[in-house]
Amino acid sequence: MKKTGLADLDDDLGVERVSLAEIAAERLRELILVGRLPPGQTLSERELSERLRISRTPLREAIRKLAAERLIDVLPNRRPQVADPSPEYIDDLFDVQAALESLAGRLFVERASDEQLEEVTAIHARLGELADSSDPLEFFRMDMQFHSAIVHGSGNAALADTHRQYNAALFRARFMSSRQIRWRNVTMAEHKEILASLCDRDAEHAAAALTSHLLKGKANQSILRNEGE
Amino acid sequence: MKKTGLADLDDDLGVERVSLAEIAAERLRELILVGRLPPGQTLSERELSERLRISRTPLREAIRKLAAERLIDVLPNRRPQVADPSPEYIDDLFDVQAALESLAGRLFVERASDEQLEEVTAIHARLGELADSSDPLEFFRMDMQFHSAIVHGSGNAALADTHRQYNAALFRARFMSSRQIRWRNVTMAEHKEILASLCDRDAEHAAAALTSHLLKGKANQSILRNEGE
DNA sequence: AAAAGGTGTTTGGTATACAATTTTACCATT
DNA sequence: AATGGTAAAATTGTATACCAAACACCTTTT
Questions:
Q1: From the Cβ of A43, is strand D under 7 Å away?
Q2: I need a labelling partner for A106 at 20 to 30 A (CA). Which of A118, A191, B80, B109 fits?
Q3: Which nucleotide is nearest to A17 (CA to C1')?
Q4: CA nearest A191: which of A139, A113, A154, A228?
Q5: Is residue B103 less than 8 Å (CB to CB) from chain A?
Q6: CA distances from A69 to A2, A114, B149, B161, B227 (A)
Q7: Is B101 within 8 Å of B205 (Cβ atoms)?
Q8: For the domain bounded by A17-82, which CATH number is listed?
Q9: pLDDT by residue (tens digit) across A135-158?
């Protein structure tokens, strides 16, 4: 093991060199999620690479990465497009996400540490404070953190990764739904029930409550969609 | 909505030109799944590109694609490696796959057509014929088809995609397990129960049977792993 | 002899150049 | 006016070249 006088600073100094492709992927993901790049928008590799000040190669890599996350559709020899999932596909995503969170709830009850339960509780409390706040995005992000914290508490790395992808794919749909003020009360009530079952270490109840919560979100989003037409 | 006399042929006529990256990804995936490229094997971009007679650019794209499917690990500035998942990670994958197939069973009962049920039945019959056959790979592939047919019958495109990825990531582990002759009887018996519950349109039973089947596979694989040590 | 450090080779990351394909616009024909 | 064809422009797909970081080996030093 190499040791120098600065050895113990290695971790902190670790200027973890992250590739341009990674940076570009994060930028693009954010632009897509917040709607700056709207669904269906075609993306020119050349134009985007110029705008992001990188060459096409890492940009292409970033685009393919987001394609794997279902945020971008890429067809051979055609311009990539920001994903514009059909209502049916969104419903499909909700169903899978519900199953994933249901599993997460079960595993959380089995394996989560007290600290992890504490974290979920803390997030729930924060969310309660934000319920009166007027910023929908802030509330929504904390809502997502509540779910992510449960998934991480499950201790299943593969589940966490897949859940994150589905969360990104569902981001717009869930955010639209979350903007309704009346939805906040529903969210808080259902989160409260979920949290209670986690505290009780009641796996079946937690799984059921999470599934129910997600499927209610699916229904709400579906209603909203039809109202909008 | 646009309509021409040929509208219903659109899907079939698609002369899809596949990119070199796509071809390379398929080649590599197969090489990894059958163990020709063993877990932990480091992959030199230059050497691989020469061997596949393509340039590094499409090869890199193929590698990143397989990385997204968890078949290859890629760390910054290091040689990509064929994934060598820890026992714990494999267990995690099994748990998620069980949840996915459980959902598939439920949805199949709700939405699958009679033809799709017939297809699952036919695969089950062929699997029975193969049970005496000596080729483990052939039996295993048909086993996988049984599960895939159920997933496709669920009519959930996102689920089908995610399930396929998990299947690939679990391929080696499940194949090792499947090689045992005694496992074939277990497989046939449990498939029979699954099929019966699908025919009865009993969603809960189908979901439970599928979960149980997968978790038994997980346990069997775990035992095999410990015996091997 | 062991450890530290330097050096050269290998490797992945990125940019650029070229080839193949698609899209667009325009014109001719009906 | 609508349709079909064609050529130019734009765009993606692929190959190659270059650079900087990482690794392996060897020398140097203690």
A1: yes
A2: B109
A3: D21
A4: A139
A5: yes
A6: 39, 32, 24, 11, 38
A7: no
A8: 1.10.10.10
A9: 899 999 999 999 999 999 999 999
Per-residue model confidence (pLDDT) at position B200: 96
B72-73 and A72-73 beta bridge pairing: unpaired
Tokens 């996988």 appear where?
A: B144
The burial class, CB within 10 Å (0-12 / 13-18 / 19+), for B25 is: buried
Q: Determine the straight-line distance between the first and last CA of chain B, rounded to whole angstroms.
A: 62
Flag whether pLDDT at A220 surpasses 90.
yes
B121-150 confidence digits (pLDDT tens): 999 999 999 988 778 999 999 999 999 999
Which residue spans of chain A are classified as CATH 1.10.10.10? 17-82
Q: Tell me the CA–C1' distance in angstroms for B63 and D28.
A: 42
- For strand C, the positions having any atom within 7 A of a protein Cβ are 4-5, 10-17, 21-23
Listed in order, the ranges of chain B carrying CATH 1.20.120.530 are 87-228
Average pLDDT, chain B: 90
| Band of residue A17 on the pLDDT scale cut at 50, 70, 90 | low
* Protein chain A, residues 37-76, with a C-beta closer than 7 Å to any atom of nucleic acid strand C: 54-58, 61, 76
Q: What is the 3-state secondary structure (H, E, C) of chain B?
A: CCCCCCHHHHHHHCCCCCCHHHHHHHHHHHHHHCCCCCCCCECCHHHHHHHCCCCHHHHHHHHHHHHHCCCEECCCCCCCEECCCCHHHHHHHHHHHHHHHHHHHHHHHHHCCHHHHHHHHHHHHHHHHHCCCCCHHHHHHHHHHHHHHHHHHCCCHHHHHHHHHHHHHHHHHHHHHHCCHHHHHHHHHHHHHHHHHHHCCCHHHHHHHHHHHHHHHHHHHHHHHHHHC
pLDDT digits (tens, 9 = 90+) for B79-121: 899 999 999 999 999 999 999 999 999 999 999 999 999 999 9
Q: Looking at beta carbons, which pairs linking A45-50 to residues 24 or more positions away fall under 8 Å?
A: A45/A79, A45/A80
- Helix, strand, or coil (residue A46): helix
Phi, psi of A43 (to 5 degrees): -115, 115
**Which residues 186-225 on chain B approach chain A with CB closer than 8 angstroms?**
none
**CATH of B87-228 among 2.140.10.10, 3.30.450.40, 3.40.800.20, 1.20.120.530:** 1.20.120.530
